[in-house]
Amino acid sequence: MFFSLQDYLAKLEPMVNVDCGSRTPEGVAAVADYVTALYQRIGYRVTRRQFSDACGPCLEITNAPDAAQYDVMLSGHMDTVFPVGTAAERPLRVEGDMAYGPGVSDMKAGVLALWYALKDLPQAADGSLKVVVCYNCDEEIGSPYSRDWLVDTAKKSACVLVAEAARANGQLVKARKGNAKYRIAFHGKASHAGNALAEGVSAITELANWTLAINQMVDLEAGTTLNVGLIKGGTGVNVVPDFAEAIVDLRFWDNDAAEGIDAHLRALADSPFVAGCRVEVERQTFKPAMRPSADTEALIALVEAVAAEQGLPIGWQEAGGGSDANFTAAAGVPSLDGFGPQGGGWHAASEFLMLGSVEPRIRLLQGVLARLAARG
Ligand SMILES: [Zn+2]
């Protein structure tokens, strides 16, 4: 394959220089239009899916339009975390062997790398490998609208490769922690703190008890962590507070442990610390942990064999943050992540793409696809 970094950057630029936060549907749609044209040019069928007007479209792209099963699902997201105005403020900029810009590494570089890998796939592999590419619009907010579609498509696929960035040290990702966010609301009874303290029920006292109880649920060794990260409550210093709220972050390696925490929180709500208090527990987001199964280990070995063949040093990371690979892995489909070019500084102005890694990572992906085709 002939590869021109200049050509790659020219194609990347319009994808970076557009405001396409998860809640900027028109920006995500512009990226989708652009990506659609690229794939149509190489003969892939593109189907647009609009799951909610609150977000942009998703794209389902395949070289096997009527297939019931795919050999591989490739995936990436078109949205970023950045507000409108960011693209104009700091558009794509190349400096030495780095490129900078909003979403350049998370993950426009990976979105484009998938296309490059497929467009130059060796004839033999292209003929036999049934590929589906899913680009979603809402990954950065937890994929609330695209999640079911991603999981359904993954279930029709033998494996899933996600093109989030490889780490700056070259590592790919074979495991990711699960996470959840809870909103806990405490309802007490207001009363005058001076005249009728005993008639009140303090929501803040209840919240304080919960904070201590939640800290007790942390199991650092198992990697199950909880953090009461935000609290609010009360209306005045002389009023017994009738309302308080806590937002809690949960991270875990073990999906059963997460369900255990969930059950524990709900049991606590059923028997409040302060008599007369009412507590509501709401799990606002949930992403299961991604742990490698035996089938995933086989896929890891395949990737390592290709990397060794190419003389490309790689390694594997167990990442704390989640991606869409968490959902597909939890559905039982072997899933690996980090197939994009190397980078870092995600979700910050310092976000960078390592230009020297672009071609080697596209070749790695291509080598893996060729080997999957040969495996049949
Ligand atoms: Zn990402």
Describe the structure.
The chain is an alpha/beta fold and 376 residues long. It folds into 2 domains: 5-177 and 289-375, Aminopeptidase (3-Layer(aba) Sandwich); 178-287, 2-Layer Sandwich (Alpha-Beta Plaits), CATH 3.30.70.360. Helix content is 36%, strand content 26%. It contains 11 helices and 19 strands. A hairpin with a 7-residue loop joins β18 and β19 (352-354). α4 (104-119) crosses α11 (358-375). The radius of gyration is 24 Å and the shape is elongated. Zinc ion binds at residues 77, 106-107, 139, 164. The site of zinc ion (ZN) has 5 residues, from α4. Keywords: Hydrolase, Metal-binding. Residues 175-273 form the Peptidase M20 dimerisation domain.
Which range does the strand content fall in? Answer: 25-35%
Tally of separate domains:
2
Task: Write down the overall mean pLDDT.
Answer: 96
Order of helices and strands: HHEEEHEEHHEHEEEEEHEEEHEHEHEEEH
Total count of helical runs of at least 4 residues = 11
> Low-confidence spans: pLDDT under 50, at least 5 residues?
none
Hetero groups bound? zinc ion
CATH fold name of the largest domain:
Aminopeptidase
The structure class reads alpha/beta
Largest sheet: 6 strands, mixed
Tell me the radius of gyration.
24 Å
- The strand line-up of the biggest sheet is 1-2-6-3-7-17
Globular, elongated, flat, extended or rod-shaped: what is the shape?
A: elongated
InterPro entries: Bact_exopeptidase_dim_dom, Pept_M20_glutamate_carboxypep, Peptidase_M20, Peptidase_M20_dimer, Peptidase_M20A
Protein name: M20 family metallopeptidase
Pfam families: M20_dimer (PF07687), Peptidase_M20 (PF01546)
Domain Peptidase M20 dimerisation: 175-273
